[in-house]
Amino acid sequence: MTAAEFSRAQDRFRIPRARRFDWLDPVGPPLRRFPDRDRRLPLVWPDPVIPEWPDFWPINPRGFPPLQPPSGTERHELTIPVSPTDTPGDDTLYESADGSTTLFLPRYDLAFDQEEPRILTADRAGTPTLVVVAVRVPTGLSELPHELSVSLRYRVPELTGGSVVVEVDFPAVRLSDGGAVVSAELPLTGPGLRQQLLAAMSSLEARATVVVKRGITVAVPNPMLLIEPPPPQTYREVALLLECVAGPSPLLLSDAQRVRLGGGTTPTGVQGMRRLRVQHEGRGHSFWQDPARPEHFYFLPDRFLLGRLPGTGRRPALNIRATSAAREEDVRVTVEFMARPVISTERLAAAEPVLAEEAGRMGASAPIRMEILPDAQPMLRLALPQDGAAPSGLTERPKAQVGLEQGVTHAETFTLDDFRLVHAAFFGASLNVMNGEVRVGAGGGQPEDVELELRLDNTAGDVLELVPLTAAPKRVTARLVNAIESPVRVDRLKAVAVAAGRRIPLTVEGGPAGKLLAPGEELEIALVPAEPLPDAGAYTIVLDQSGVSVQVDKEAVWNAVFDDSAKPRLSREVSVVAVPAMFGDPSGDRVALFVVSIVGAQGSVQLSETELKATTLVHVPVSSLLTGAPIPPLRYRTETIWQSGLVGVSQVRETDATILPPIKTRPNA
């Protein structure tokens, strides 16, 4: 449509402004928005005399100007590393300008001297200087060129109860060993700067961390426009500063290191974490009091147990994979597990009045707070079998991912003989295999060990599912369902209702002691509160399942944890051997051919008077070997083909031997 045609069409359908926009100019005559009900219909409303607005601008008949792709450089013209995304991060794999090399931006962690981070004070031309040493985390990939800067970041409490983040930059950064070692230096010239930094690195409340900033210059892709024909991909040059926290985080100095950094004596105003021992059920448990916030206490889990995963089946957090091999001694089995922390709420409740009294002595007036200790570098120590024998001690596993709050995740690879001991230990046959501890430095001083146990009959995580049926202030009915793969024995149940921070005890009725529930079986119970409950939805029911034990179904558990997707197999070489006398027969007929078929072999083997020996590979599933079962016997049969054209078929024979004779069979056998 041309501009003139559009204007004529607009004139034809033009509507007065008062109707078009449903309002009147103040200078026009007043009109009622609704008709008067006392007047008879129809009513005629004349249009007011109002000057028309100017016509709208007509649409450009030539359309909008064509979209232009953003300016940039094409891939073959680049001279700097290339990012595959316009928002690169730590996990991004970059490419060199010519695309021949994959590049990776390395991360950095603090260097350690035994159990202490390599942080020291040095004299630089008469100026005391704080030196922090970090090391590059190896990746096996080529390094993306980058510039480094280092800072110390921590929180300072405010009088209002909050905190502010303070960041102190290290003005000098030195590289050595090809850039693998980074030394950041900070002159301690400011008033009280040494005491301030030592106090930050001595308090968990400060959450002190060493931040390594990596400056990179890369080419990132420009957005593509959906136009035809599609333009070539272009790139633009950007300069980015990517941060990484040099672990451990938070940074916490030991008492001895804090004294050394303070010049041989404890600096004024700098106090370390105070350790308290509180007895519970005949055993002492450690709590750490924060010097900056005396009402804050930190504790350790009671132990770590093999976890269970959420979702349908709640299967154990255990994954077992095996490799194919030609010999048993070449089979390798990888075990990956996740252990979860277990915390006794009764222990914490019993310790609360003792800790509150200690906090009051230190001048704290706020209610006490308890958190899991965010230890800087917990270490997993595990009892691992060696050469098919039980372990003689614990082995440190520094590559394990350990968090006192999140749990322990680790993968270990075993030979077949060692794994058989591990398999038996998972089902409770051994108490000194796949047990261990998590060693915690606890801010310096004597380390503490938290027990770790990996058993399928004692896991962390709910095995029963509670499904509420009816809810009343004085009685709640619910259904208990066994949600796992094995039977469970219900010896006792405890429950509480949590409402607005209050815990209301619930008496469980209908759960007979010693009740055994099969997988998927249900049990109806009633929960009677010690006081009337609020409206439904205003509280949460927490079920204590410490009195529920698992009766492990070995087959069901194995099917849940063994990853058979790769179909690992053990290949055995089997020989079939005949002797010349086997081809003759008193009847005068002779054997022309023996055809031997072996279960698990690819194809059959043939023997003749000129070929008296043949070999083949028989594949056996590895899964049957992992549980300690012997290699299943070979099963084979022979078809005897006679020169007369007749064929005799033998019965299936089983044997443990790997050298098999053909079974000569007459046609009428």
Automatic annotation (TrEMBL):
Classification of source organism: Bacteria, Bacillati, Actinomycetota, Actinomycetes, Streptosporangiales
Species annotation: Nonomuraea endophytica
Protein name from the UniProt record: Uncharacterized protein
